[in-house]
Each structure stands twice: as structure tokens, then as C-alpha cells.
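protien #1 (seq + structre)
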Amino acid sequence: MVDTWLIVGLGNPGPRYAPTRHNIGQMVTDELARRRGETFREHRAGARVVETWLRPGSDKLVLAKPNSFMNVSGTPVAALARFYSVTPERTVIVHDELDIPFDALRLKTGGGHGGHNGVRDVARALGTPDFPRVRVGVGRPPGRQDPADWVLSPFGKDERDTLPVLVSDAADAVELLVGEGLLAAQQKHHAPR
């Protein structure tokens, strides 16, 4: 039997936010779609989606980018989960994480939201915090810069040089999580480079 996984890249809509730290989750879903030669299309749940496969004959993947702003991501995520009959255990949220250094990944299921309003809203809408997360490190802002301003700013030049590798690694982590499970993905992606 084929299982369906919902892979959601959190971010903010529009070109103004596309290159920002807060949109790294959507950059990862873009990479997953690119690997499969697919293009996102509008879905009535308030998101852009790609329906594809992990690999031919294996689990179905629904890649999604909500059209809502980050802080209200839960409504489209819950609507997509209902539409595709996907449980929270198979709803993977890919998002930026201030408490992880830039160019590092951490994966987990459940736990708190760590002050991330998008994750908080998804947990509220799904009725549980028990969903897998691929947390992509963007690091803390320098000095006294407001974290909200930091995540809404574009990556710096040095970060942009490394960003394609980080996005590719995060896409690999999603594929490994779906294909072999959380522990296998953690063992590979939590190790230092």
C-alpha cells in the first residue's frame, strides 16, 4: 500500500520575502520539486502544491507552500492534511530555526515550538505538536538586532555561497526521513560535517 506524506515548507508569500531566512522551508520544497522536474500549482486549500513520489512506485509526496503568512500557516496545513487524508505523523514541517547555527540541520518529532509562530500555528491547527520537523539553522542575529528583523532579512553574501548546499542537505534529510525514518535521518544529518 502506498502512503502519502505531506511536506510543507513554511515561509511568507511573495517575491519580497522569497530570499529571506524565514523562507528557507519553501526553498527546500522548491528543491524537492526541482529534483522531480515538477512545478507548483494552486490548490483550493490556500497553498501551492506538487503531487509526486519519493521515487517511482514508493510513497506519494505532496509538497506544499502555504499562501498565507508564516504566523497563520496552520489553516492551509490542516486543510491539506484533511484533503489528502494525511495524519500529523506524516506531515513534515520544514522551517527556519534561530537556535540552530546557520548551515546545520536538526530533525525531531513533537516538542515545543521554541517561539516559532509558524510551528505554533501548525500545532494549533492540527490539534497536536506531534509532527516531524526538519529544522534548518539560520542562527541568531548579531548584536542586538531584533530576531524578527533578522529572519525577514535576506541571507548575507557568505551565507548565500553556502545556501545551495544547506538547502540540498535539508532536501536530502526530508527524503531520508520519509524513506528510512526519523532515526536514520537524524544519524546522518546531526553528525558534524
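ok now protien #2
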Amino acid sequence: MRHLSFFCLLLMPSAAVTAVPAYQPVAMPIGNGADPLASGAARMVGAILEYTRWPAEHPVIRLCVVGATRHAGRLDEASPPHGARIDLSPLSDPTEPARNRCDALYIGQLAPVPLRRLIGDMRGKPVVTIAEDDPDCRSGAMFCLIFTPQTLSFQLNIDAVSRSAVRIDPRVLRMSKGGY
């Protein structure tokens, strides 16, 4: 599998967000509350959705959450693309047919077998997959978040993107060059 780092978000108080290659961190405000990375995760998911094109326009993006998550507590604050709104929905069972219920799937910790089945079920479907707990990006998800105490970044799994029915804006690839 070929993976590219997209960009890093350096979490700092009151700074602007700018997209640049992975070797140059981007400043981003830290959130408040018990999990300051949850705010960053919401912004990162919003940015991913902004670069995503589905086969048909979506006035509502159905963002499903599955598995045990650490930083999904503020996903309802993700900025939807082009004026769409986010409909956040938990999936209690990873074997549910998510491909018909979800436009994007935020995946927390799952056992390897259910995770492989879930990701495999999404192949060829218009569903963006984002893994919260897969820093090596081996699950087959399209995007894999990487959390550290002061930064948030993600890797792009080109193979997973190519097997999907969604299109990711080519600027994601341009921005990731140099971030191997």
C-alpha cells in the first residue's frame, strides 16, 4: 500500500490554519475541555470532507462513527463542505451495512477481523473512511489520523482512495508531496 502524509496541524492558541506539505507544521487553535484533540479531529474531518467529491451532491453528509473512539467527542462541530450539514450517527455494530447509511465513516478501535470486514465492505462505495486509531495506516482506510500531544496529522492511503467511488481533490496529493 502506498501512503502519503497530507499535512500536520500544530495545535497552538489563536493561530490561523493554512494547508502546507507535511514537513511544515500548520498552526491551529487548541480546543477546550477534557479532550483538546477532539476539536482538532473535528476540524481535520471537516477538511477531509471539504476535499471529497461524491458522485452526487449531498446537502447532508451522513458521518457515522463506529468502534471505541478517543477524540470523536466534537465531530458534530466539523465544518461541512459547501454549506452541507453533518448528520452524526453512531453505529453500534461494525457488521451493520454502513455503505447504505453513511457518506463518511469515522472508525475507532475495532478488532482486526471486524475492521477488515468493514473496510472491505466500503470498497467501491461512495464512503470516505477515516481511521482514528491506525497511525501506520494498515487498516485499508482512506485517511488515517495521527495524534501526538501537540500535533494532529493524517496519512492518505492512495490504494483505498482509488478503490472508492468518491474522488479526493488532487490538491491533497500535491500538498502531500515531500511528506513521505
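The chain has four helices and ten strands.
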